[in-house]
């Protein structure tokens, strides 16, 4: 089994920030025989925030799921091309998808805490992953990193489901952090939250990027321009079969995408002319 920790990026002589954490080379995704996304080439920078934007159905979530092999869990989904994490091809037969999902965590649109105590929401996954250290410390550290410790420290035995939506989402981020991933994928993490909870998550993302590489799918262009360093704009084109096929139009620094994009489609989208 290929060890995902074995990679040139662990060398002290090469600063991690200079190499992409994740790399896509010619990735196409199919659901059954229907193509959903074609030929994506993309480098995700280490310890930065990359946003995926684009109209509904252009394949943002589909592409995001390729980074931790969660498309494998969808019957009929097929990924072609290569996805590299720290130089290791994640789709190689030697790579264990469970290990991939441990190293590359995911937070979903709707907060989905386990129906267990706040403490167990953090401890459960760590225990399953064979964590041998001090569990109390791990729980506190993860909740602190997710900026929710002060709100829950006196009620760790209460159910995770008793928290507000915004708190539940930070609990889910803490749960992802507890597994000690290197990358956190976020699929519209704020779309079910009110503006104040959204702001908390956005602030939290800025803190987390000191330690983690973050990729976020968002429908909210203001959010992408506020939080991200890089932005990938996806669009979809009509197919001969009457469907839609997603593709990457443009990928650049967020400020360039929003102020001086190279493609007319991008300019029209970010200025609200379609989508
Ligand atoms: N589980 C699935 N089974 C079959 N087709 C799917 C599945 N998930 C996505 N698709 C199709 O793949 C295409 C891309 O969908 P995807 O959800 O990735 O786009 P998106 O840009 O994230 O959309 P949205 O912004 O609406 O969430 C769409 O045509 C969608 O119908």
From TrEMBL:
Entry's Gene Ontology BP terms: phosphate ion transmembrane transport
InterPro entries, per the entry: AAA+_ATPase, ABC_transporter-like_ATP-bd, ABC_transporter-like_CS, P-loop_NTPase, PstB-like
Residue stretches making up the ABC transporter domain: 22-261
Record carries keyword Membrane: no
Keyword Transport on entry: yes
One cellular component term from this protein's GO annotations in UniProt: membrane
GO molecular function: ATP binding; ATP hydrolysis activity; phosphate transmembrane transporter activity
Superkingdom of origin: Bacteria
Cited SMART domains: AAA (SM00382)
Alphabetical UniProt keywords: ATP-binding, Nucleotide-binding, Transport
PANTHER family: ABC TRANSPORTER I FAMILY MEMBER 17 (PTHR43423)
Protein name: Phosphate ABC transporter, ATP-binding protein
Biological classification of the source: Bacteria, Bacillati, Cyanobacteriota, Cyanophyceae, Acaryochloridales
């Amino acid at each position: 089994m290929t060890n995902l920790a074995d990679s040139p990026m662990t060398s002290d002589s090469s600063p991690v920030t200079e190499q992409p954490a994740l790399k896509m080379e010619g990735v196409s995704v199919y659901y059954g025989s229907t193509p959903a996304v074609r030929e994506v080439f993309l480098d995700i920078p280490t310890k930065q925030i990359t946003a995926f934007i684009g109209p509904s159905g252009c394949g943002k979530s589909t592409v995001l799921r390729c980074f931790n092999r969660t498309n494998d869990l969808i019957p009929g989904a097929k990924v072609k091309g290569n996805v590299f994490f720290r130089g290791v091809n994640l789709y190689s037969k030697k790579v264990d998808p469970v290990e991939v999902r441990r190293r590359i965590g995911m937070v979903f649109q709707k907060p989905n805490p386990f129906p267990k105590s706040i403490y167990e929401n953090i401890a459960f996954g760590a225990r399953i992953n064979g964590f041998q250290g001090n569990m109390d410390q791990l729980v506190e550290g993860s909740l602190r990193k997710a900026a929710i410790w002060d709100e829950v420290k006196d009620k760790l035995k209460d159910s995770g489901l008793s928290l507000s939506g915004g708190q539940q989402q930070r609990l889910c981020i803490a749960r992802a952090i507890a597994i000690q991933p290197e990358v956190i994928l976020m699929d519209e993490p704020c779309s079910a939250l009110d503006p104040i909870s959204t702001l908390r998550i956005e602030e939290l993302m800025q803190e987390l990027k000191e330690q983690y590489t973050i990729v976020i799918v968002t429908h909210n262009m203001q959010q992408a321009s506020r939080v991200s360093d890089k932005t990938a704009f996806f669009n979809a084109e009509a197919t001969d079969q009457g469907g839609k096929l997603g593709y990457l139009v443009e990928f650049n620094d967020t400020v360039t995408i929003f102020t001086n994009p190279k493609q007319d489609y991008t300019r029209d989208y970010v200025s609200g002319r379609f989508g």
